[in-house]
Structures are given as C-alpha cells and as structure tokens.
C-alpha cells in the first residue's frame, strides 16, 4: 500500500482541529482539497476514520490507532521543515570556533554572545588552545574557524592575517604612568613578566632592549598572557601584552601604555581550504574580521 504524505497530513490536521475547515486553514489548502485527501486515504486503507456529529468529525477507534503512528511522522517532518527554514535564515546550525587564549577571556565570548542573541537555536562549540593545536583542529574539521598566532605549519589552511600592536601593562600605582609612551631607556632596571623565551613577544622585547644597549630584567616567566597580566596586577613588574587581554580585563590594578619601538604580533584567522564553511560560519567569519579590524597595526595603541 502506497500512502501519500499529504493524505496523512490532512488526516492529522482533521484529528487535531476536529473539522475540515480547521484542517484547511492549518494546511493552507482548500476544504474540497482536504475532503478529497481524506476520501483517498479511507479508500486506500479501507477504513472508516471519522463519524460526523454536529458539524464535527469524530475519529473512530481505528483512526485513534492510526493517529498515534501518523503523529510522529507529521511532527517529525514539521521539525525538518522548520530546521530548513532556520538554516536558510541562519537562525540555527552549529558554530565551531577555536582561539588562542588571550581572546578567550573576553573578546571571543562577547562576540559569540552577540552573534547568538538572535539565534536561540544555534549550537556553539568554542575552545581556547595553543596556536599549533588550533591549526590541527581546523585542518581535521573539528572546528570551522580558528584564530591563532603565526606561523602556519599546515598548507591546507586559508589565512586572513592580523598584525597586532602590543602594549605595555604596568601596575596602576607605578610612577611609569606619568609617561605617555614607554621605551627601553625608561624601563632600565624594571622587572618584566614575560612569555617563554621562544614566544615572539619575548624574542622581540629582548631584541629591542639589546639594540638599545639596555639589559632586559626578566623576573617572571609564564605561558599565558592572562597569567602575565595577573602578575602585573600584583605589582611584580611590567609586561608586553596583546590588546585582547588588556581591553577585556575588568579586574583593574593596571594601566597600559604604548611601547616604542613597536612590538608586533602576527596572527591569523584560519579556515580549511578543503572544507567549505557553513552559512553560519560564513556569517560569523565576516563579523569576526570586522571586529578585528580596529586591532590591526597602527590602530591598537589606545591608552587605558
């Protein structure tokens, strides 16, 4: 027996509304159309499905059994249709983003929350990790979009470069705050909180101090910008940090100043060359690039 879904849908609507008129309004088709679909269904099944009583259709016991089976199918297809509509309107789907740690404490959660505000059914996967791991995740398809530090070690990545100017974080009560711009000469003998020796900010800080003929006094080594800032807030020294951790730190206890010569960080927004982005991913990627634009070289030295 080959039953058409439209027949089952009409039957389902009649049971729910109790009338042909109600079913027609629910499905957006004519009353004769509903009556014809019901007639076809009863003829094919050889079952009497309704009794008429005072203008209403009363389901027979056979109709009650059939309705239990049909209900799951009809509601399931309704959910599929709504999911398609949501995806077309970019209201649903899955957003998969990974970023290096300094963005994960404020910048990225705020941006994702803003993006998701009008998408209540959006499923979100977000992780913070070291840059090499982020590249592996995007290559493998575990995440659609990543933000990492350079260099890229995989050929299969599409990269949108971001060159970010770092700033110097100093304790809030430091006498260094009287200077609008800080230099190696002004920082002679001042303890530094630094990343590991191979990190680009540490290497470049060493280089500018060497070029100025001034020793760099590294007092604390750590592995996350957030940790470095915590030591600054405790008054243990100063630190070269990217603007993401500085701009989204609400704890106070520090101020930041431009540092000269500039110390830059090369970063990139990455996607896979071999996997097309979902519609949701494309829209978020456009928003992410837009929000990162003010942090690019020459625009990130705001005084705080």
UniProtKB/TrEMBL annotation:
Family per record: Belongs to the LysR transcriptional regulatory family.
Pfam families found in the cross-reference section: HTH_1 (PF00126), LysR_substrate (PF03466)
The UniProt record lists the keyword Transcription: yes
Start and end residues of each HTH lysR-type domain: 3-60
InterPro entries in the record: LysR_HTH_N, LysR_subst-bd, WH-like_DNA-bd_sf, WH_DNA-bd_sf
Protein name, entry field: LysR family transcriptional regulator
Provenance organism: Leisingera methylohalidivorans DSM 14336
Annotated keywords: DNA-binding, Transcription, Transcription regulation
